[in-house]
Amino acid sequence: MTVVAGTHRDNPWIADLEWVRPAPQDRGRRTQFRLLDALERLLDTEHIDDVSVAAIVSEASSSVGAFYHHFTDRQTLVYAMLERVSNEFEATTRAAVAPERWQHGGIEDILRGYLEFALDVGRTRPGLRRAEAVLALRDPEVRAMLDKQRRLLADGVGDLLRARVGEIGHPDPLLAIDYVVAQTAAVLDARLDAHQPGALLADHDDAVFIAETLRSIRAYLDLRPAPTPD
Questions:
Q1: By the 8 A CB rule, do 139 and 159 touch?
Q2: What is the chain's Cα-based Rg?
Q3: Cβ atoms within 10 Å of 61's Cβ, excluding its own
Q4: 3-class state of residue 125 by DSSP
Q5: pLDDT tens digits along 74-122
């Protein structure tokens, strides 16, 4: 299992949270994973369209014969990478939004954890993020896959917040939660997208970004103190 390192390790709510990537057991799966890992690494420096089979094989310390034993062509490898990441995202998200993780946490705890972990994960695979964006423009199936991931995370965070409506002073708490979930996702996208126009608090570190985002949410929701755990 691959651990995503970063600032969230100081947050007790998510200190143990990891990006779920089980290690393959048999030899064939290990070869497949090496090729998939190689493609992910190459995407950090190259455009998805410029990554060749030869480059992938070299990066993986594998062979062309091994590549074509496991994958029909380069496109098959690309889609296998997307499927693997999608499965990992789903497993990680379900662990992150599990109610038992947050049973003693309030709305601000949940949103702080969401912001910190999303920033960590979003920066570990910049090339993959760029490749997903390119492929989503071309392929409706890739776009649908990414939309499904967003919905899973949004629904999970939303469910955690809806279980805590007593902390919200906004006159329409359920509507307010929908807005907060959507807006938090939007500011994270803006923070992580280096090509996004505008200031984006680029001159401020993550601590300031998180603090100001939470300040905005507190005011909008009119948050009340979370109940003290028994």
A1: no
A2: 20
A3: 8
A4: coil
A5: 999 999 999 999 999 999 999 999 999 999 999 999 999 999 988 888 8
